[in-house]
Amino acid sequence: MLDNIFSFIVNYKYIIIFYLVIVGLVIWKWKKIDVQAKIIFLYRSDFGLKFIEKLVKKYREVVILIGYVGVGAGYVGLVFISYILLKNLYDLLFVADAQSGVALVLPGVNIPGLGVLPFWYWLIAIFVVALVHEFSHGIVARAHKIPVKNTGLVLLGPIMGAFVEPDEKKMSKQKDIVQYSVMAAGPFSNIILALIAVLLLNFAFTPLQDMMVESQGFTFADYYNESYPAAIAGLPTDTAIIGINGENTGTFQEFAQVLNCKEPGDTIIITSFDADGNEKDYDLTLIPNPDDEEKAFLGITTIKNNFEIKEKYQTSFWETIYYGLDWWNGFLKWLFILSLGIGLFNLLPLPIVDGGRMLQITLHKVKGKKKGEKSFRRVSMFFLMVLLINLFLPMIQKAFGALF
């Protein structure tokens, strides 16, 4: 028992230290902290208000224009994410072996197709996403001369974020388009942040890191389904795949180029390694892809390219640069995923998020306040149920599958 506790403390020492510091700060500033719903801790301040004022004073017209663009993008995103949610539910109910495209992205959890989200990536990315989201609301609000009362830090359990509080009473008196632009600013900024992250990743830092390494094939961590070709053939997980049909492939992208030319029913030979580290060929017969039956499918997920640092970069200095880039690229990947996911989630027609508030104003305008509010509640409750079913149905199906 004591050994397990000691091992836990050693493995998670930095995380434990981090939260001890946070608890210490909460105790130190307790008199200035507003506790809501027993688990939400708000620390209000004037941090960033001067920055917002300077930015708005210099670029007011540009901010207003971008805010209006965000309204259009926000409504497109609202329709898109609603459709994705409904389609995912349909697939779960009526498509055999369908995998859910909706999941809670939590640290330490293996997310199908993405891998395990490291704690520090999650913590830093969530904070950055929240900071950008909330400050965007404040910046657009001030561009329309809506007062911003304060900014601050928020703790929701272990999740740390930021918030900005515009004057809600004065904002409610503004024109509809102004209210839309303030609400859409947060999600729109998250989507822009995601685009910046993926552009930096693909066109700057990944090519820089790739220059320092030599490709050594790729691995996969999970089977899509135990009844699919890779599992049936016994293709081992976490073992480098280095070729297809006698052709050497250094990366998964090279492998996929050959695979994309094949059709369901074709037989291929994959070169990998056995348990003793010897090259071995595996014969597989491809099947239709669950998402597109015209495409061939192996049945592998959580794919990762393998690399070896080139000899000229195997010095302490260059290895530090390489692993720094490796950490940064991993962070940009998860920043992209989390920022895009949170941005789109905030556009769902739910009462607690920006997309719901935008839809609420629209329905009030179209149907009148009383009928519009009734319609909004119906729509928001419907999508709340759809979201919950999307999240928990796969867990229930998996639990019953294990039992029977």
Task: Describe this protein with a few key phrases.
404 residues; alpha+beta; Pdz3 Domain; 4-stranded antiparallel β-sheet; 11 helices; 57% helix; 20% strand
Tell me, briefly, the overall form. globular
Secondary structure tally, helices? 11
Helices and strands, in order, run as HHEEHEEHEEHHEHEEHEEEEEHHH
Strand order of the largest sheet: 1-2-5-6
The CA-CA distance between the termini, in Å, is 34 Å
> What percentage of residues falls in helices of 4 or more residues?
55-70%
Number of strands: 14
Structural class: alpha+beta
Largest sheet data: 4 strands, antiparallel
Rg over C-alpha atoms, rounded to the nearest angstrom: 25 Å
The total tally of domains equals 3
Mean pLDDT comes to 89
Strand content: 15-25%
The low-pLDDT segments are none
Structure, described:
The chain is α+β, with helices and mostly antiparallel strands. The chain folds into three domains: 2-36; 49-207 and 334-403, no CATH class; 214-309, Pdz3 Domain (Roll). 57% of the residues lie in helices and 20% in strands. It has eleven helices and 14 strands. It has helices spanning 2-11, 13-28, 49-94, 119-143, 168-172, 176-210, 229-233, 252-259, 316-345, 354-367, 369-403, and strands at 33-36, 40-45, 110-111, 115-116, 148-156, 159-166, 213-223, 243-244, 247-248, 267-273, 279-285, 287-289, 292-297, 300-309. The strands form five sheets. Strands 1-2-5-6 form a four-stranded antiparallel β-sheet. The protein has a four-stranded antiparallel β-sheet with strand order 9-8-10-11. It has a two-stranded antiparallel ribbon with strand order 3-4. A hairpin with a 3-residue loop joins β3 (110-111) and β4 (115-116). α3 packs across α11 (369-403) and α6 packs antiparallel against α10. The protein is globular, with a radius of gyration of 25 Å. The model has no long low-confidence stretch (mean pLDDT 89).
